[in-house]
Amino acid sequence: MEVFPAWDEKFSVGNVDIDLQHQTLFALAEKSAKLLNRHIYKTEVKELLCDLFDYMQVHFKDEEEYMESINYPYLVEHKAMHKKIIKDMCCLIVDCSTTNDLKEKLYEIVSVWLLEHVLEHDMKIGIFKNSLEQKENKEETIEKDEQYDYVCDCKDMIHKLDYGLHIKIKYLNIAYKCKKCSKELVFNDLKEKTE
Length: 195
Ligand SMILES: [Fe+2]
Prior knowledge:
Layout: H1 16-35, H2 42-69, H3 75-95, H4 99-134, H5 142-145, E1 147-151, E2 158-162, H6 163-170, E3 186-187, H7 190-194
Antiparallel strand pairs: 1-2, 1-3
Bound molecules: fe (ii) ion.
């Protein structure tokens, strides 16, 4: 069973309240991972799922207000990711029938969606906030320069996409096609895996 990382300063988004909320989410993730190893009643899992669901809604709203307050450049895309997580979570809760089903789904929600989201995407808010503090020129950010490799059917062709487009394709399932071969662009995560 995968062990969740403990919350660390490096995950900070540059706001004390949001950081505290993330710490609570990490604790909820830890709690749900432990549930998988013991016998549990359906009502217990449902309770935890509902707690998590309520907490996430409040947290997402607060985080969105924070992003707005610092003029985070990927606010729209990030908000769309939040919306999708909540929507997927609603579907899961409705679909689950057995206790084991519920337990597994709970684990999936906290590990795949929540932690991946906090570790990968919320951290970028922190990086942006840092760059605001460090640079006088507020237009210039680290994130704007980051690029993601996508491939199509064209031989040796790599499409370099920015973070905003990367979110749309990988997390919001919006398709983008290569103008040359007309095939959908696919994220080339080989680089991430081998690094
Ligand atoms: Fe977020």
